[in-house]
Design goal:
10 helices, globular
Length: 209
């Protein structure tokens, strides 16, 4: 069963309380951690980080929880504030993107050997570059696209069997190709995308953005 990736913008009130009740008693299933982190990732990132720590303590080999932690790191690097219902960052806070928390996230990602962690970060950064471009921030989008590519290519080198990593890298190349300014670069990126191993060859577990 595919895990939900709903990112409700309403992180407080009854909905938040209902999610938190899942963690008041016995340890819930790994999927509950994944979905709860998705709910809290922009509305209460401190609590979302706490959940990923709890989840990875209980399920250290769970790739989706690791990817969700990576996504949190990616959102911190972006300086993301809020998320709309289409999955676009509502606002990019430059001070937050230059904060110690963002620097710490970068250090964690550079030091990790967890492919799913890198894939989660790279995927969300890559995805949000289109939002930056729509808002006229093309230079920043290009800078972060390079960073996302670095994380995703490294993830695939660490674990070429990770569906999180291969799927995210393929999407990244395809998205980059759609914004390339010359035909040769477009072709190069599309060839790179085609060369990434197909997800179906690896794991049957659905990935989530």
């Amino acid at each position: 069963k595919q895990r939900s990736t709903d990112n409700s913008p309403e992180g407080g009130g009854p909905a938040a309380d209902a999610w938190k009740k899942h963690f008041a008693g016995q340890v819930p299933a790994a999927a509950v951690f994944v979905n709860a982190v998705a709910f809290f990732e922009t509305t209460d990132p401190v609590y979302a980080h706490k959940l990923t720590s709890m989840g990875l303590t209980q399920y250290p080999a769970d790739g989706e929880i690791a990817a969700r932690l990576g996504r949190l790191y990616g959102l911190t690097i972006l300086g993301a504030k809020g998320m709309d219902r289409l999955g676009r960052v509502a606002a990019f806070d430059e001070d937050a993107a230059a904060s110690e928390a963002a620097d710490a996230a970068r250090r964690e990602l550079e030091g990790t050997r967890n492919a799913n962690l890198l894939a989660g970060a790279g995927d969300v950064i890559s995805w949000q570059t289109s939002t930056l471009r729509m808002r006229g921030r093309t230079a920043k989008a290009a800078e972060l696209s390079d960073l996302a590519e670095h994380y995703l290519e490294r993830a695939c080198k660490l674990d070429s069997s990770s569906e999180q990593a291969t799927g995210a890298l393929r999407r990244h190349y395809q998205m980059a190709a759609s914004t390339a300014r010359d035909a040769s670069r477009t072709l190069e990126l599309l060839e790179k995308a085609a060369a990434v191993p197909a997800e179906a060859e690896w794991t049957a577990t659905p990935s989530s953005r």
